[in-house]
Amino acid sequence: MSITQSFDGLKEEIRESFEEDIVALRRDIHREPEIGFETEKTAQKVLDALDGLPLEIQTGVAENGMVATLQGKGDGPTVALRADMDALPIHEETGLPFASEEDGKMHACGHDGHTSMLVGAARALSQDHLRERLKGTVKFVFQPAEEGYAGGQVMVEEGVAEDVSSIFALHLWPGLPFGKVGTKSGPIMAAADAFEMTVKGQGGHGAMPHLAADAVAMAAHIVTVLQTIVSREANPVKPAVLTVGQIEAGFAFNIIPETAYLGGTVRTLDPDLRERMSERIEELARGVAHGMRGDIELDYRFSYPVTSNDADAAGLVLDVTTELFGEENAVELDNPSMGGEDFAFFLEQVPGAFIWLGVGDVSGLHTAQFSFDEEILAQGSALLVALALESLSG
Q1: Helix axes 375-391, 111-125, angle to 10 degrees
Q2: Interatomic CA distance for residues 363 and 348, integer angstroms
Q3: Which among 106, 192, 265, 289 could disulfide-bond with 304, CB atoms 3.0 to 4.6 Å apart, if both were Cys?
Q4: Is residue 1 domain-resident?
Q5: Residues 297, 18: Cα–Cα separation, whole Å
Q6: CA–CA separation, 378 vs 320, rounded Å?
């Protein structure tokens, strides 16, 4: 597709006019991370940063999210730009001068950057010379509770996507070279589901295992056998991941506990395989437990669906990136990530695209050492501005 808007000088303008404030906001948010829906302080920081702009602001969306709406100078469709605001329950180990002041909480997935970039985009597009180029409406969606609480689903249920024609979201991405913009049509992130399992046996003395039914031994076998679902039952060309990330059992070295607990995640791209994984986990685990004189209880949660990009929207991202940053920085991704993302709930309702913004070779997402070069923030804001301008070009 051909680009109709001119972006000459846009990235330089945003860097010169807004970068300092974008970086300052990111650091302020980073110091006081908040978990899940409890993003009151973060929302207030965003509200303060948007003060005085020609925006209609709706607060209290999905508890502590907000939607800021900018009406362009002409009539037309509505494009939404979304950022997530919540942090993770991780103790920070970056050593940054603006490191988290909240023990056990950290912005380890870049949401502080996402929020700051969207604020930068809102401030830029609110300027008269850019606003007059918008033939339609821009919704700036500040979402809480992406990390496991499905805040995106709540926002959709509360009607945020109802009048939206297209939607875009950026995510800072380690491993993608700094400044590269990556996306693809179709699946870009996997369905992310979760399970909790209680393995039930019979307790006893550690020296007399024949008089007990060892829940720890059952759990150990279950962890191993579950991997055969991926390695021996799933079609090798249809990716799947099954990870048991939690095992808890016992309270003394010489006592066989009555129960053991397993917690895990399942990632898939294929809907049929997604359904089958839940069925086979229960069947295999129960079979192992029965064979060892025990049983299981399974709580399986279908959490986030596949994040699937609209082909036209993904193409628009790559074309806008080429025009704004050069063809060498527009990357059409070969493969999706098996990570999950609740932006999927928006994309089930509205055509749009999830976009990776490269931060280079840094510590991975969801690690205590995650950080990034803040020069990327102004670039992300510029891309969001350009996507809105092109989407509402008339």
Answers
A1: 50
A2: 31
A3: 192
A4: no
A5: 54
A6: 16
Strand partners, 39: none
* 356 close to 182: Cβ distance less than 8 angstroms: yes
Please give the pLDDT value at position 88.
98
CATH number at residue 251: 3.30.70.360
Q: Are strands 135-143 and 166-174 parallel, antiparallel or unpaired?
A: unpaired
Q: How many CB atoms lie within 10 A of CB 114?
A: 28
Range of the domain at 228: 191-304
Final residue belonging to a domain, choices 277, 304, 331: 304
The last residue of a domain, from among 304, 329, 356: 304
Are 264 and 321 in the same domain?
Answer: no
66 plus 81 within the same structural domain: yes
Q: In what order do the strands lie in the sheet with 295-304?
A: 240-249, 259-268, 191-200, 295-304
- pLDDT for 394: 81
Answer whether 205's CB lies under 8 Å from 212's CB. yes
Question: 163 and 276: one domain?
Answer: no
Q: Could you tell me which residues come within 8 angstroms of residue 4 by beta carbon, excluding any fewer than 6 positions away?
A: 390, 393
Total of domains in the chain: 2
Q: What is d(CA 304, CA 193) in angstroms, rounded to the nearest whole number?
A: 6
Domain shared by 183 and 203, yes or no: no
- Output the DSSP codes for 81-148: EEEE--BBS-------TT---STT-B--SSHHHHHHHHHHHHHHHTSHHHHTT-EEEEEEEEE---SS
**Residue 70 burial by Cβ neighbours in a 10 Å radius (0-12, 13-18, 19+):** buried
**CA torsion angle 307 313 314 316 (round to 10):** -160
Tell me, what's the pLDDT at 156? 98
Predicted local distance difference test score (pLDDT) of residue 1: 62
CA-based R_g, the chain, Å: 23
Tokens 């990034």 — which residue? 372
